[in-house]
Amino acid sequence: MQEQVFIDKAKQYLKGNLHTHTNLSDGKYPVSEVLKIYSENKYDFIGITDHDLFYEGENTSGEMLIIAGQEVTCDYIGDPECKGAYVHFSCFQKKAVPIAPMTYKNAEELQKCIEELKKNYRLVQFNHPLFSSMFAKLSENDVVSLNDYDLLEIYNHKDFRNETGISSAEVLVRCVLNARKKLLLTAGDDFHGPYKKAKNDYFGGGYIMVNAEKNEESILAAIENGDFYSTTGPRIIDYRRIGNRLEITTSPVKNIIFYSNVRRCKNILSDDGEDITFGEYEIRDADYYVWVKIVDTDGKTAWTQPLYL
Q1: Do 225 and 123 meet the contact criterion of CB atoms below 8 Å apart?
Q2: Is the pLDDT of residue 261 over 90?
Q3: What pLDDT does residue 125 have?
Q4: What CATH number did the domain enclosing 28 receive?
Q5: Are residues 212 and 225 in the same domain?
Q6: What are phi and psi of 56, to 5 degrees?
Q7: pTM of the predicted model over 0.70
C-alpha cells in the first residue's frame, strides 16, 4: 500500500473558527469588531453564522477572510412544555434559500429538515449536539440515526463551558462511529461575546486547522475533503499511514490515544514526566475506523478526523 498522508508537516494550515455571532443577531459586537478580535489572535478565517440570517457583506477585511454562512434554527414543536427548544445547524455557501421556517416533532422530521438544508447549502454542520439533544428531546439513538449533515461539533466553547458541563461530544461521536456512520469533526467558539482578554473568556476555545489556500473556495473544498483537524490548543504536526502502521507527530502533549471500534484502544501516556510528541498504531484486521486524540498538560485536546478502513 502506498503511504497515505492525512496531516502533512510540509503543508500550510490555516487557523479558523466556523461558528461566530455578531450584532446582526445576538452577538455583542459588529462584524468589524469581531474581525479585529480574531485577527489580533492570529486567526486566518472565520465563519459568520448569525441566527437565521445569511451573511451578505464583504468576505475579506485586511488579513481576515470571512466564510459566509448562517446558523439555521429547527424549532422543536413536539411537546408544548418544551416551547423554545431547537436544534441549530451552521450552513455555508448558499445554493438557494429555504422557503419556510424549519420545525420538527421527532427525529424522522428532523432528518427531513437536514435533507432540505443540504438542498440549499453546500456544507451543513450539526452544532452543539449535546445541548441540542438534551434541550430538544433527541435521544442518543435519535442523534445516531441522523444522516446527511457534513460536520459535527465535537467541541463548542460556549456549550461545553456553560450549558452541559461536559468537556466534549466524544462519547456521542464514538456511538456514531460504532454505528458505522461517517462524519467530519469540528471545534468552534460559538462566540457571542464578551471579549475581555481574560484566561476564562468566551473566546478562542476551539478552532480548526485547515490545509488550504486563503480563499473561500479552497477552504470549503478542504473541509469537505476532511483535510483539517480540530483543536482546543495542541497541534498535530504530521499524521500518516505507512502500510498497516499509523504514525502521528504532535506538539508536546501528555497523552496520545488511538480509538477504534475494537476493544482496548492504544493509550500512550508520558510515564517519566516528560512530554511526548510521537505515537504509532498497528491497524488490526477488525478495525473499521481509527481516530486519534491528543491531550496536553492543561487538558486541552486535539482530534484527527476518523480514518475509515
Answers
A1: no
A2: yes
A3: 97
A4: 3.20.20.140
A5: yes
A6: -115, 10
A7: yes
In a domain, 59, yes or no: yes
Cβ atoms of 260 and 289 within 8 Å: the answer is yes
Domains in the chain: how many in total?
2
Segment 270-283 shows an average pLDDT of 90
pLDDT (mean) for 96-105: 85
Look at residue 253 and tell me whether its pLDDT is greater than 90. Answer: yes
One domain, residues 55 and 194 = yes
Q: What confidence score (pLDDT) does residue 165 get?
A: 66
> How far apart, in whole angstroms, are the C-alpha atoms of residue 76 and residue 102?
9
Residue linked to cell 498535530: 236
Is residue 169 domain-shared with residue 39, that is, in the same domain?
A: yes
Number of neighbours of residue 153 by Cβ within 10 angstroms: 29
Which pLDDT value is given to residue 91? 96
Mean pLDDT of 160-183: 83
Q: How far is CA 29 from the centre of its chain?
A: 23
Residue 152 to residue 271: CA distance in whole angstroms: 33
- The strand pair at 151-156 and 184-188 is best described as parallel
Intra-chain end-to-end CA distance of the chain, in Å:
13
Domain of residue 126, residue span: 13-232
pLDDT in tens, 19-28: 999 999 999 9
Q: How far is CA 70 from CA 73, 200, 282, in A?
A: 10, 26, 41
Helices (H), 80-139: 107-120, 129-135
At 186, list the grid cell: 469540528
Least confident stretch, 27-31, 130-134, 190-194, 277-281:
130-134
What whole-number distance in Å separates Cα of residue 143 and Cα of residue 266?
27
- Do both 79 and 184 map to the same domain? yes
- Does residue 67 lie within any of the structural domains? yes
Domain boundary among 182, 202, 232: 232
pLDDT number for residue 153: 95
Q: Which three cell numbers stand for residue 269?
A: 501516556
Which residue do the cell numbers 480514518 mark? Answer: 307
The more confident residue out of 2 and 105 is: 105
